[in-house]
Amino acid sequence: MRIIETRGAPNPRRVRIFLAEKHITVPFEELDLMAGALRTPQFTAINPMQRVPVLVLDDGTAISESVAICRYFEEVQPEPALMGRGALGRALVEMWNRRVELGFFAAVAAAFRHLHPKMAHLEVPQVADWGEANKAKVVEMLHILDATLAASPFIAGEDYSIADITALVAIDFMKAARVDWPQGIDNVARWHGEVSARASAQA
Ligand SMILES: N[C@@H](CCC(=O)N[C@@H](CS)C(=O)NCC(=O)O)C(=O)O
């Protein structure tokens, strides 16, 4: 088993944090996405989406999509539960992770991909207006997260979950995406300090 990744990229970091929380060790293989290493025929055969991370099992089965990789490890090793407990808990974690991933992480990524000059060769066409529009979506979602975190310690409730991992990685990627930290999100700041202090955040 191995995970193919690019160390500095945000989606692989989601999986590394998830694994660190579960104390699971998996060997990593580094490919440089900025140098075009995901566009080769060899890698395309592993993941036709040409994206990392990819978990490659010993029988050659390739699992891409960060949440699918996390789901695999959650099933293999349920504790500590990072994707909720019971019908209600799992539904709430899924709801929040999808909100954070589709409404927040994707917006940060779009701002980065459509505005950063170093992404011009990978994001074709780069649409600057779309990048700018997504900066506003990032700020909007941060205020939604702030209201949530006013009422609970973690995004999906009482327990740390994959939704916190997705949000942490997205927030930390705001710097590269050149999205400024807005005023008035003190609850997000409190939560960010706490989740950043967990050992897994260094993974
Ligand atoms: N939905 C995928 C997204 C994966 C993704 O976009 N990965 C980025 C790195 S963070 C990538 O491989 N980019 C390569 C490229 O844009 O060519 C997931 O959840 O894993």
Task: Pick out the low-confidence regions.
Answer: none
Q: List the ligand species.
A: glutathione
SSE order: EHEHEEHHHHH
- Spatial sequence of strands, sheet with the most strands: 2-1-3-4
Task: Please report which band the strand proportion falls in: under 5%, 5-15%, 15-25%, 25-35%, 35-45% or over 45%.
Answer: 5-15%
Going by helix content, strand content and strand pairing, the class is alpha+beta
Number of strands: 4
Largest sheet: 4 strands, mixed
Distinct helical segment count = 7
User: Mean pLDDT, as a whole number?
Assistant: 97
What's the shape?
A: globular
Helix content: 55-70%
What is the radius of gyration? 17 Å
CA-to-CA gap between the ends? 19 Å
Structure, briefly:
Helices cover about 55% and strands about 5% of the residues.
Q: Would you kindly provide a written description of the structure presented here, covering whatever features stand out?
A:
- The structure is a single chain.
- With 203 residues, this protein is an alpha+beta fold.
- It contains seven helices and four strands; from the N terminus they run E-H-E-H-E-E-H-H-H-H-H.
- The protein has helices at residues 10-22, 41-46, 66-76, 86-115, 128-151, 162-177, 186-197, and strands at residues 2-5, 28-30, 54-56, 62-64.
- It has a four-stranded mixed β-sheet, covered by helices on one side.
- The radius of gyration is 17 Å and the shape is globular.
- The structure holds glutathione.
- Glutathione is lined by residues 9-11, 33, 38, 50-53, 65-66, 122.
- The site of glutathione has 12 residues, from helix 1.
